[in-house]
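Researcher: I'd like a candidate sequence for this fold, 154 residues long. If you have to choose between options at a position, lean toward the conservative one.
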């Protein structure tokens, strides 16, 4: 298992950041190359289900073409913490999203992925090559999230 943790300060109170984070169907507005939908309901608590598709957006297609990432919410502690368990064939392991209040106002959003790498030895050997691109994508998504959360209705 490999762990990746990134954080960003957001000029918004924790309740607004939480509302933006858990507005699952709008995640594609800030998460790079990803569309998210809820499965079987609003996914606002433990056992809620999500499906994300990450990849390329081809002309004439409504959704991204790429990796399907299915998830189940395993922890739900509004407005501070949500944990999703990635259950797909490629992406597996817990994703942890935490919202921390900052002294003096605002919040810090912390995104942790604990990845179980696919493809056995090839996945482990390829991680050092893939990691810089994954980190770059997460950091870009976090910058987009900070702007998205600032104006999101709580």
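Model: Candidate sequence:
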């Amino acid at each position: 298992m490999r762990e990746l943790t990134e954080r960003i300060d957001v000029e918004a109170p924790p309740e607004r950041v939480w509302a933006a984070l858990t507005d699952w169907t709008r995640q594609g507005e800030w998460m790079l190359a990803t569309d998210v939908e809820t499965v079987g309901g609003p996914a606002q608590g433990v056992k809620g289900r999500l499906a994300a598709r990450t990849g390329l957006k081809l002309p004439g297609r409504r959704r991204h073409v790429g990796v399907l990432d299915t998830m189940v919410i395993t922890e739900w502690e509004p407005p501070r913490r949500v944990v999703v368990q990635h259950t797909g064939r490629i992406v597996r392991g817990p994703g942890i999203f935490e919202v921390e209040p900052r002294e003096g106002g605002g919040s810090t959003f912390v995104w942790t992925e604990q990845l179980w790498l696919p493809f056995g030895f090839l996945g482990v050997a390829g991680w050092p090559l893939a990691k810089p691109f994954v980190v770059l994508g997460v950091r870009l998504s976090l910058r987009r999230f900070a702007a998205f959360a600032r104006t999101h209705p709580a």
